[in-house]
Amino acid sequence: MKLPSILYIYDPLCFWCYGFGPTLHKLFESLHDKVHFEILSGGMYIGNQAGTVNQVSPYLKTAYKEIERQTGVPFGEKFVKHILEPGKAILNSEKPSIALTTFKSYQPENIVKFAHHLQEAFFYDGKDLTDDATYIPLAKLFGIDGEEFVKKMHHPDYTRKTKEEFKIVNELGASGFPTILLLTEKQNYLLTRGYIEFEPLYLTINQLLSPVS
Description:
Layout (H helix, E strand, L loop, with lengths): L4 E6 L4 H17 L4 E6 L9 E2 H4 L3 H12 L5 H8 L5 E2 L2 H11 L6 H13 L11 H6 L5 H8 L2 H17 L6 E5 L4 E6 L4 H12 L4
Helix pairs in contact: 1-3, 1-6, 5-6, 5-8, 5-9
């Protein structure tokens, strides 16, 4: 029997998704033996929505504090001081989303961990996600040759696959991030559109899985 799936729709540059990261990791550790996990990138900052912090999301300069308060997840000093407050850093989801797509070709079973490290590199360590060099140590964390990984990121196939993900997310109507769906053989369930804490999410998933376990 095919395992049910948790479909996590996020964006690498989504502040609330960063705050949700530890919850997703805990969910994965609790359920990975009976649920398949898949992540799709939503394309939050692409096309006309991409730009500097000052241009496209200046409110985040103060809103991040509320995210810290609700989630308990801290934003790093380097991120706040060097990216957020100056407001000149580019928010463009395409390259980090391509990195996620590329990683799936190596270790799809570790996609939850990679997505977390990708966001930590930006939101905690203040790394530039438009810079190829940022992805080399991320790949090496998983025993992947960093230079090979970056080279693969630039292959047109991974740009195409990433844009297909953006299209799928749009067709699913996932207008906010994070969005989480539970996909079973009988029915698909929208679990949340927006941040949610671990306990109610875990309880809901177990209740929905119990008839098909």
